[in-house]
Amino acid sequence: MKTDTRRSGKISGYFLINYINDLVLSLRCLCLCTRPSHATIRGIDPAQLKYLINSSLILLFGLLHTADGIVTYFGLKFNYATEVNPVLLFFAGTMGLGLAIFALKLLCVEFIALLYVTRRNIGSCWGTATLFSADAFYSWVVSNNIFLVLGV
């Protein structure tokens, strides 16, 4: 019985190591954009490719924030869900729900616009990886809110 326990631990460890290796390889692909190279990828300079990737990730983040504001408004307006954000609850109690969501999302979108304007300063692959992680997390948040509103 001890061999079965060790074998299952080895198998789960093997899958964990493969998952970590895949994650590291995907981050290396993001880092390829920052390496100085004379080769082009499908006719696009690597620096230009990094610029395009960062631009699209920032724009996607802005669209996700806008979608989150719309879904949150409908979910709270028609009592499909309850809000757990204490900042939004405070401002909704003082300014009203629609104005509070609009003001907070406008502040977020202004920050994203500032990030978009200064996107050429994102030099490392970790900045691109952070943008990708933020988009992935916020995609989950928006999809979760949609499921809550729809009652799925």
From TrEMBL:
It comes from the Bacteria. The chain crosses the membrane at residues 51-76, 88-117, 129-150. Keywords: Membrane, Transmembrane, Transmembrane helix. Residues 60-150 form the DUF5658 domain. Pfam families: DUF5658. This is DUF5658 domain-containing protein. It comes from Methylomonas lenta.
